[in-house]
Write a structure and sequence with these properties.
Layout (H helix, E strand, L loop, with lengths): L2 H16 L40 E2 L2 E9 L10 E5 L18 E10 L8 E6 L2 E2 L1 E6 L2 E7 L5 E4 L8 E9 L29 E2 L3 E6 L3 E10 L4 E10 L2 E8 L2 E7 L4 E5 L14 E9 L2 E10 L4 E5 L5 E5 L2 E2 L2 E6 L13 H13 L4 E4 L6 H10 L2 E5 L28 H18 L5 E5 L10 H11 L4 E2 L15 E5 L14 E8 L1 E2 L16 E2 L3 H21 L1 E7 L23 H12 L3
Parallel strand pairs: 23-24, 23-32, 24-25, 25-26, 26-27, 28-29, 29-32, 30-31
Antiparallel strand pairs: 1-12, 2-3, 2-4, 4-10, 5-9, 5-12, 6-11, 7-8, 7-10, 13-14, 14-17, 15-16, 15-18, 18-19, 20-21, 21-22
């Protein structure tokens, strides 16, 4: 047994020893996935949550925490209302609560844990994968920090607040959702008449909570790796404290290139790199060591891939997206990333991976991750399976009818009445965090800051900012939203329901169909509600639904010849009242015949 496994088991034992001995059961009477039946509250989401930066030290803090809901003005946790299963959000069935949180109240969490052996002389960092939306942390009664934003990871250095014996952590969360339209919230809404494309709110911790120990003199805080198809690899290491970084690139466990970093920067080169693609998703291992006075004081392990996304011009003069220098049609589903039992949080890592494996089985090579950000392990699975990802920014506000129109970007007029400066600041802050934290994943090839003019503002400036943050990927300025004459970014994106059609073209840009489809089929016993289910097209059998999909795929073929370079079908699964999925919301029934969908998809992808 290696040290990392032994260390993880010892840490898990310590956590279990401190965990409350209470009963837990899913709440509510909505449908659930099969994985919900196997939830063990003492062993929920135990996988290492950050595959791109793996350390030997790891203390998973998921499990049952005390919780309370109280007026938001308080600064001390009141008597607990009961227990909640972290990392499932408050409103979810798997939290064991299925509660609600409004803008006037706060959600409090509390738990205790013991430090593993050897940690007392280390610097201890407490990590939160994501908390929706604003939070404040106390450690042993001392204020340790705060964070705003529901979709990015964050951490706190907690060593100054630790004591001997048990450690107590208390987290206060506030979440206004759409009240005041000040915070990014994607498809969440308080409205009891949600229906169609809007879903119930998500509040509190919804990704893994964990701690790790690093050397008190210095550690690797983050890194970025840029691997190009010519075999060059540049690594930028962010070091906190003392030490110099050493970089190693590994293939099949063997070091094939290494370099010393200067000011955190290092360059390596290999010959004939094995390129990453959807058909051959090859990954190289990456190891970064921090050395001080000849001694390794920190080490992280990750991976990278040699691949490039670019724009080329075909023989007919159409702008095309190219992977590794070759044109490739991007074809995939709109993926909402919601679960009937966990809402924003998949029941387990196996479930998280399942949707991606099915996406490949349906013959797609891409996913548009729609106004939501996933845990790091989702992108890791995309990297391993070979799925291109278009990553949306969760929108601040829904579109109001008078604010939408092709060619007129009303939010660019700078009218603060339409979107407040505070809301803009929240958007920019979160988008910067999201891009910076996720640009190390090779699967991501396109950033999508806006969707359908939902809270769209200063489009040209947001695109420029995104390009500065990551100049090595493409930017889709506004998927189906307001666009600026002459275009900014790389991609012009039409939405058209139900059948595929392009409403606008710009020969100077890559033209794509960012949404179409929405073929609805409610399956009895597998719907969120019995009545008022919704789809752009509503059919009654799997055969009809599959045939309709095949017909839409045939309609795509002439669009591809005319210059359409990508298409996004709505959608991976049903979500609440939406019954537009390839699968039911509980993932138990395929609503289209996978083999026929895959054959239709191959014809479209190969037609470019």
């Amino acid at each position: 047994m290696n040290y990392r496994i032994l260390s993880s088991l010892l840490c898990a034992a310590l956590v279990c020893a401190c965990a409350p001995k209470v009963e837990w059961a899913p709440a509510g009477d909505h449908i659930r996935t099969a994985w919900a039946e196997d939830i063990n509250p003492a062993k929920v989401h135990q996988e290492y949550p950050r595959p791109q930066m793996v350390r030997d030290s790891y203390l998973n803090l998921n499990g049952l925490w005390e919780y309370a809901i109280a007026p938001k003005e308080g600064d001390e946790m009141p008597a607990p209302d009961g227990h909640i299963l972290v990392p499932f959000p408050l409103e979810s069935s798997l939290s064991g609560v299925a509660g609600s949180l409004d803008a006037d109240h706060a959600l409090w969490y509390r738990r205790t844990f013991k430090l593993p052996m050897g940690w007392k002389k280390k610097a201890v960092i407490l990590h939160f994968g994501a908390v929706d939306w604003g939070c404040e942390l106390w450690v042993n009664g001392h204020k340790a920090g705060e964070h705003r934003g529901g979709y990015a990871a964050f951490d706190f250095y907690i060593s100054p607040f630790l004591t001997s014996g048990k450690q107590e952590i208390v987290l206060k969360v506030t979440d206004a959702t759409e009240t005041g339209s000040l915070q990014p919230r994607g498809k969440q809404t308080f409205s009891p008449e949600r229906g169609s494309i809007w879903y119930q709110p998500v509040s509190g911790i919804w990704q893994t909570v964990w701690a790790e120990a690093v050397d008190k003199w210095g550690h690797i805080a983050d890194y970025q790796a840029l691997a190009k198809i010519d075999g060059s690899l540049r690594v930028f290491s962010e070091i906190r404290g003392d030490g110099e970084a050493e970089i190693e690139l590994l293939e099949d466990g063997k070091v094939i290139a290494s370099a010393q970093a200067s000011d955190g920067r290092a360059s390596l080169n290999i010959e004939n790199p094995h390129l990453w693609s959807p058909d051959d998703p090859y990954l190289y291992d990456l190891r970064i060591k921090l050395v001080k006075d000849g001694k390794i004081i920190d080490k992280v392990e990750g991976y990278t891939a040699f691949r490039e996304i670019s724009i080329v011009e075909d023989a007919d003069g159409h702008k095309r997206m190219a992977l590794n220098g070759k044109p490739l049609f991007h074809y995939g589903p709109l993926d909402q990333g919601w679960w009937p039992d966990g809402l924003y949080t998949a029941p387990c890592d196996e479930a998280l991976k399942y949707d991606l494996e099915r996406t490949k089985e349906f013959g797609f090579n891409m996913i548009r991750k729609h106004v939501k950000v996933e845990p790091d392990r989702w992108y890791y699975h995309c990297d391993k399976l070979g799925i291109l990802v278009w990553q949306d920014m969760p929108s601040v506000d829904r579109c109001k009818g008078e604010d939408w129109g092709q060619g007129i970007d009303k939010y660019d007029a700078g009218n603060s009445d339409q979107l407040s400066m505070r809301a803009r600041g929240n958007f920019i802050h979160e988008w910067q965090e999201i891009v910076n934290q996720h640009k190390k994943f090779p699967c991501i090839v396109v950033w999508v800051p806006f969707n359908e003019a939902w809270g769209q503002f200063d489009t040209d400036q947001i695109v420029k900012m995104t390009k500065i943050l990551d100049p090595f990927r493409l930017v889709n300025m506004a998927s189906g939203g307001n666009w600026i004459s002459g275009g900014v970014g790389d991609i012009l994106d039409s939405h058209h329901y139900p059948n595929p059609a392009m409403r606008i073209w710009d020969p100077a840009m890559v033209n794509v169909l960012g949404e179409y489809g929405g073929i609805g089929l409610p399956v009895e016993g597998h719907t969120w509600v019995d009545q008022r289910n919704w789809g752009y097209v509503k059919l009654s059998t799997v055969e009809e639904t599959t045939a309709k999909y095949e017909g839409f795929a045939k309609q795509l073929l002439p669009l591809v010849k005319e210059g359409c370079s990508a298409a996004v079908y709505t959608q991976t699964t049903d979500v609440e009242r939406e019954v537009n999925g390839l699968m039911t919301y509980d993932r138990k029934v395929d609503k289209l015949i996978p083999e026929r969908v895959a054959a239709a998809n191959r014809e479209v992808i190969e037609s470019m």
